[in-house]
Amino acid sequence: MPNSTEHPLIRSSRREALVAVAMWFVAMLWSVGICTSYGYDRDPKSLTFVLGFPDWVFWGLIVPWGACTIASGWFAFAFMKDEDLESVSEQHQPEA
Asked: What one-character-per-residue DSSP string does 6-55 give?
């Protein structure tokens, strides 16, 4: 559990980093899982195309990358917060 005297910028940065790493991890699991499951040891006659891409490429790469682009926009414009460094430093001065 984080220390209650921890600087607010550190706490905010840690939260943002954890969300970014979680998004990366989910995207990696999805891409590797789908591409491995549907891309290997497959009968070429069962291959179908979605919007011109082989189905395993579309569902394993195009869809998660598109979702990550949207999630990155949300992360950058809605989740991350700007902090005024001077006012935060004045409010949270360590006691000597």
From this structure: S-HHHHHHHHHHHHHHHHHHHHHHHHHHHHHHHHSS--GGG--EETTEEH
